[in-house]
Every structure is written in C-alpha cells, then in structure tokens.
Amino acid sequence: MSEDAEDRDDDWFESAFEDDPDEVDASADDESGGGADESEGPSDGEGTDSPFASDAEGDDGGESPFEDSGGGPFDDDSGGSPFEDSGGSPFEDSGGSPFEDSGGSPFDDGGESGSDDGGSLFGDDFATAFESAGSPGGGGGGSGAEFEDEDFDSDIPRIDVGIEGLDRMIQGGIPRRHLIVAIGSAGTGKTTFGLQFLHHGLENGENCVFITLEQSHAAIMDTANDRDWGFDAYEDDEQLAVIDLDPVEMANSLDNIRSELPGLIEDFDADRLVLDSVSLLEMMYDNPAKRRTEVFDFTRSLKAAGVTTMLTSEASEDNPYASRHGIIEYLTDAVFVLQYVRSETRETRLAVEIQKIRNANHSRETKPYEITMDGISVYQQANIF
C-alpha cells in the first residue's frame, strides 16, 4: 500500500468534522436515505418467624450439678441446692420466658404488633413495607415516581435529558460525562430520543455531535428540522456536527477512531455526543470475546473524552430489557429501556423504564410515552398497568 493511501485512511474520520454540509448533502442523494428508527421485580417477600418466638420453657427444677449422693459443702438444711428457688429456674417468670409477651412474638402475624393498626411490620409483602417507609425522594409511595429538585443538593454536576416527564423521574438529573444507552426494538423512538437529547443541549448553548451509522446526514437533518429544532442553524453556527459513517469502515478503522476521537471532541468543545447505533458496530465482530473487547475499549475512549454520551442499541429478540448482544448495558452508567406494551383488550402502547443510573435516585416505575412532532413526551403521572 502506498504512503498516500495510508494518509488517506488515517485522515478520513477527522475530515468528517470538516466536511462542508452542502457537499455531504449532495453525496447523501446517492445513498439509500437510511432506514427508519429500527433496532430495537422484585418478588414479594414472605414474612418469616422471629428467632424470639420460641415456645421453650426455662429450666424447671433439674438437679444441680453441685449435688452429689454424698452431700456437698453447698448442701443446707433443706437438702437442696442454694441455686434452686422453689424448684424453678431464677430466669423463669410465672412459668414463661421473659421474651414472650402474651404468648406470642411481636413479629408473629398472630401476635400484637407495635404498630397502631395491630398488624405485623412484615406481615404483608416487602412492597407494602417500602410504601409505609416512603420513597427516597420524600414523596412517599415507595416508587419514587417524582422528585422535588428544589431541595436536592449534590456536588456532582448534572444535566437534564430534555424529555418532558422523564426528567422528573430522575432526582437532580444525570451526572455529566455519564455514558447513557437507550435500548429498544424497531419503532420505539431511539433516534428521536438521541436527537431530542442533543436539541436540549443546543438550546442551552452546548456544543453537540451526532454520529449515525444507519442514516445519511440529510436524513438526520430532515428529521430534526421537521420538528422545528433548527439543526441547520446550529450547524451553520458550528455548534452542531452531524456525521454519517459506514459501520464497516468504522470497524476497520476503530483503532484510529479511538485514538483520534478524544482530541476531535476536545477541539470541537463538545458537551454532548450521540452514536446511533452501537448495535451496528457490535455486529461487525463475529467473535464474542473480540466484540466485547472492542466495544469496551470504544466506550472507554468516550469516557476519556469527557463528553456526556448517549448510545442507542437494538433490543434482544428474546428479552426486551436487554440489548441485542447483552454487552452495552454493563458498560454504561445509565440505561433507558423503550418497549411496546401489548394487550388483548387495549391498544399497543409505548412505555419507558429507567433500568439504572449510577449516582442518581430515579423512579423504577414503567411509564407510557408517545412520539409526536414535538418529540417524545412521557406521561409521568400515568401508569402503564
């Protein structure tokens, strides 16, 4: 291979940040136009018997170890041991254990409890116990569906996702520089989720990068502009960079991308980045060990770049709560699951669940949402079931 060819291979990714949008749009006409947005409990505890609920009686007058047949120095006139008191143990109180109260343990379902209603603290399932204790956000109800951020104090810088209803399910917001993934099947709105995440940052003066492995530059811009998000203006002001890459070419040049990406992000001064989707990158590796190593190294380079990153991932065909290859959810800091909820008696609905967010309190309820021309809107006050 000639030296000129090697130079062209090293510079292709960096030149993606410098391409004129008009030239990219012209080249995009020769492409297919991209696909649609496709890719895509706790068990009830049972109360246990208290270790204090014992029916055992005290020592009831057994022979003293100090007695023998010949009489010992401890014998008195009565012929009994000085440790015997009316034939019973000194620890007996009216023939019962001091730990027994009216014949039952305070933890037994049938006994009296210290609560006002007379029921056992653990007489019902764990969900009831959590509800009685209140939620981490102080709103009661154990589910933590909504948090009051006015009283929230944290030393960790945080950001909002930018999706109405969803942000209220996260106390204080997502920590900056977190690695986020949105997992869902085809049509659940993963690309819209990512674009809306960037749009919120752009509105707040942040610099953003969108990397697509599925669609063309023109298709992404059209999707955003149809919602009046003004991506053309942000791109003209060099506040936004939209890059379309071929997944095969990206996989073949992943070593170069890993080394160059942190520097390019720093030069662009990016605050938010979206990669749509990581599933196509994972599919480039047939060997599971190689796949995990490459994806791990890539996510580590994103963390090193110091940018808040959102990845989209197809859901597993067998498990809607897992990604296609079951890797990315373990390498990220926050996981959002987008799914269909189907019922024989009701129409198919979309629902979102926050599976995890490191260093943040969040609701664990499943909430319905819809995709409109304004983007994704989560009905935070409604329940899917």
3D architecture notes:
- The chain is of the alpha/beta class.
- The chain has a domain of 184 residues: P-loop containing nucleotide triphosphate hydrolases (Rossmann fold, 3-Layer(aba) Sandwich).
- It is built from 11 helices and 11 strands.
- The strands form 2 sheets. The protein has a 9-stranded mixed beta sheet with strand order 5-4-6-7-3-8-9-10-11. A two-stranded antiparallel ribbon has the order 1-2.
- Strand 8 and strand 9 form a beta hairpin.
- About 24% of the residues have low confidence.
Q: Percent range for helical residues?
A: 25-40%
Level-1 CATH class name of the domain at 9-38 and 179-332: Alpha Beta
Number of helices: 11
Shape: globular
Based on secondary structure, the structural category is alpha/beta
Q: What's the overall average pLDDT, rounded?
A: 74
Q: How many strand segments?
A: 11
What gyration radius follows from the Cα positions, in whole Å?
32 Å
Give me the strand/helix succession: HHHEEEHEHHEHHEHHEHEEEE
Distance between the termini: 61 Å
The CATH superfamily of the domain at 9-38 and 179-332 turns out to be: P-loop containing nucleotide triphosphate hydrolases
CATH topology of the domain at 9-38 and 179-332: Rossmann fold
CATH architecture of the domain at 9-38 and 179-332: 3-Layer(aba) Sandwich
Q: Describe the largest sheet.
A: 9 strands, mixed
